[in-house]
Design goal:
Length: about 110
């Protein structure tokens, strides 16, 4: 009887699982634009292998929202990649809601050249 109650309670509560993963893994991503406003950086990119592992609804843009020193380093890397046209790899984890839609949250950026 207790098992049935636990099973019913578990099925009643939604479970949110973040998949995390590569938004682009093969190093083909080219930053097309950076939009900086309201404490966030929106990174628009093109890639041959765009992916949305958390099903946020966007596979050609990610959001950087991190006010720590690591966020500053990621922003610097993104600016360097944009200016030098260096391709990048992007790892995302979770979603951020902005502008009436949802974007993958940038976790890691790797300059590939």
């Amino acid at each position: 009887m207790l098992r049935k109650i636990v099973l019913i309670l578990v099925t009643l509560f939604p479970v949110s699982v973040l998949a995390s993963g590569w938004a682009t893994e093969n190093g083909s991503a080219q930053i097309t634009s950076l939009q900086i406003e309201g404490g966030i950086v929106k990174v628009n990119f093109t890639a041959t292998d765009s992916n949305d592992p958390d099903r946020c609804g966007n596979s050609g843009a990610v959001i950087l929202q991190d006010d720590s020193k690591n966020g500053d380093r990621q922003y610097s890397a993104l600016m360097a990649a944009k200016i030098s046209k260096t391709p990048i790899r992007i790892w995302v984890s979770g979603c951020i809601d902005r502008w009436s839609t949802s974007f993958p949250k940038l976790w890691s950026v790797i300059l590939t050249e």
